[in-house]
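Journal club prep — side note

Before the paper discussion, L.F. wants everyone to see what a predicted structure for a comparable chain looks like in token form. Sequence:
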Amino acid sequence: MREFELKYGCNPNQKPSRVYMENGDELPFEVLNGRPGYINLLDAFNGWQLVKELKNAAGLPAATSFKHVSPAGAAVGLPLNDTEKKIYWVDDLGELSPLASAYARARGADRMSSYGDFIALSDVCDSDTAKLIKREVSDGIIAPGYEDEALEILKEKKKGNYCILKIDPDYVPDEKERKQVFGVTFEQGRNNALINEAFLGDIVTRNKDIPDSAKRDLMISLIVLKYTQSNSVAYAKGGQAIGIGAGQQSRIHCTRLAGQKADNWFLRQSPRVLELPFLDEIRRADRDNAIDIYIGNEYEDVLRDGAWQKIFKTKPDVFTDKDKRSWLEKNSDVALGSDAFFPFGDNVERAKKSGVKYIAQPGGSIRDDNVIETADKYGMVMYFTGLRLFHH
């Protein structure tokens, strides 16, 4: 297949639309089921690159949940503890395969953003992963292959129209990439930066003590950023991204947005949230929405009379700011990556509030001294990688 016609481009009025290989080669993917759209394929190809690099860096199966050309979550296949199984709604599925665990983490980091995602898997999709995906709202998946049972399970989604793509894992694109904007062709070399421990660069803080698990999480955050619309910041812990701030004009806004998502991820693990008395018939997506509102500033929307009765068996107590802060102070050893340098120490100050102890950023600001001083104040470990990771 050298060309694939699409229904339309980014929007229904953008026709005709197609994907093809300029050099006349065959496309590096097969459509096994459904019909992908323009944005689906953007998510698929960015997601595939991300999980392939994650697996190479961590040596574990990897998964990502993509929405609108940025990852909502990404993770490697580490086992889930009992709390994680509960907050990711997989505690009824028994022991999961490493690949299924990776997707449960990727989907669960920010379930609000992952709703209707496009999934990318580093490995052949197994039945455990397919069973998990089957019950989530998702637009499609890309993987290097599918077990027979997994393929049949996925084909049942969306009344048989679920988009299933098979990527050629050996495909290597040209060194130069091109795109057009306003009729003008842009050309650049592909971002071939290899993100590994060597990429982390030099530690510039007084504290230089960092465990291997934190190095892994820093690599995860940086690989995620490599495929996230800039400006971007990513928080990671336990083999997964827990908060991603994408496409912000200000670095501090990236840090705040990603930090708030990381906070929400940790608040979901609090007993106050785990013990919410949901009605038995409440759907998974509605629970996610209710939790997001309950732990936010607009909690009255789910606690006022006439509203809580439609969600809960009994009215929950307010999760006060004091109680939330008390719980959040228990979060620690979080890793943070930034796709460009921190211009001021305020980014480090905000990161500290979300339990960040390890940071990787390019460095090169005229205020590097202030940023390092702020990190030293909190005993953090900070790397200067020396290389920016913008993605547009």
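L.F.'s comment for the group: Residues 3-172 form a domain with the Cytidine Deaminase; domain 2 fold (CATH 3.40.140.20). Keep this in mind when we get to the figures.
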